[in-house]
Design a protein that fits this description.
Blueprint: H1 9-17, E1 29-34, H2 38-45, E2 57-61, H3 68-78, E3 82-86, E4 90-91, E5 96-100, E6 104-111, E7 114-121, H4 132-142, E8 148-152, H5 161-169, E9 173-177, H6 187-193, E10 199-201, H7 203-214
Parallel strand pairs: 1-2, 1-8, 2-5, 3-5, 8-9, 9-10
Antiparallel strand pairs: 4-7, 6-7
Length: 215
C-alpha cells in the first residue's frame, strides 16, 4: 500500500535529512568531548537537536577502532541530523554530526574557503583517542572562538581541559556536564577546575543549552 511507504517515522526522517547539502554558512561549530559513559549520554542529548540546526557538531568519543562506525550508524537512526563517522576528509556541513573514527585523532582543515574535518594517525602527544584536547585546539585554529560551543561530557581523566578552557578564555562558550548525571565526573570536573566551563548542567539540559546558543 503506497500510503504506508513513508509511515515509518525513522525512514521518513532519513529521506528528508539525506536530501540536501548544507554548507556551514553561520561559521559556528559545536564540539563535544566524551569518554566513559558517552554512548548513553549522547543517546539522550543528540536526538534533541532539530532539523535545520545551523552548525555542524563534531564529536571526539574515546573508543577503539571498529566501534565508532556502528556507533555512528546507531546514532544516525535516532537523530534528526545525519551522523557520519569521519573516515576521510569531509566537508563540514550544518545539520550534520561527525564522529571521530576510533584509532585516529580528528582535525579541522580548510580547502578553497571551505572547512573540512579529517582523521589523522593518533598522535603520541595525547593519551586518549580520538583526542578531545586536539579537537579543541584545532577548532581554535580554524574557527573564531566566539563561534565555538564546546561541550565536555562524562569521562575519566582530563582530556580536553586545557584547550576547552582556552576556548572559553578567548570568548567561546562551554558546557561541563554536572556530577548529577555524569557517569564518570572526571573530564567535566577538570574543565571546571581549569575555570573553563561557562555553565555546568546535567545531561538532560545540555541539548536545550546548545540550541539556545546556536539557534
Amino acid at each position: 500500500h503506497h500510503e504506508n511507504i513513508l509511515s515509518d517515522e525513522g525512514e521518513r526522517r532519513k529521506v528528508l535529512k539525506h536530501r540536501i547539502v548544507h554548507t556551514n554558512e553561520s561559521g559556528k561549530i559545536v564540539i563535544i568531548g566524551v569518554s566513559t559513559g558517552g554512548p548513553s549520554t549522547l543517546d539522550r542529548i543528540l536526538p534533541e537537536i532539530p532539523v535545520n540546526f545551523p552548525a555542524p557538531i563534531v564529536i571526539a568519543q574515546h573508543m577503539p577502532p571498529f566501534f565508532t562506525g556502528p556507533f555512528a550508524k546507531r546514532l544516525d537512526s535516532i537523530c534528526n541530523l545525519t551522523v557520519t563517522e569521519v573516515t576521510k576528509p569531509m566537508e563540514l556541513q550544518d545539520e550534520n554530526i561527525y564522529i571521530g573514527k576510533g584509532g585516529t585523532d580528528i582535525i579541522f582543515g580548510d580547502r578553497s574557503g571551505r572547512s573540512f574535518v579529517m582523521p589523522k594517525p593518533e598522535s603520541a602527544e595525547f593519551h586518549w583517542h580520538p583526542s578531545v584536547e586536539l579537537l579543541g585546539r584545532t577548532a581554535l585554529d580554524h574557527y573564531k572562538a566566539e563561534k565555538i560551543v564546546g561541550v565536555m561530557l562524562t569521562g575519566m581523566g582530563n582530556d580536553g581541559a586545557v584547550s576547552f578552557s582556552e576556548i572559553k578564555k578567548k570568548g567561546g562558550k562551554t558546557i561541563a556536564e554536572s556530577e548529577e548525571t555524569a557517569v564518570v565526573f572526571g573530564m567535566p570536573k577538570e574543565l571546571i577546575a581549569h575555570k573553563g566551563a561557562s555553565i555546568t548542567l546535567p545531561s538532560y539540559k545540555v541539548g536545550a543549552q546548545i540550541k539556545r546558543w546556536i539557534l
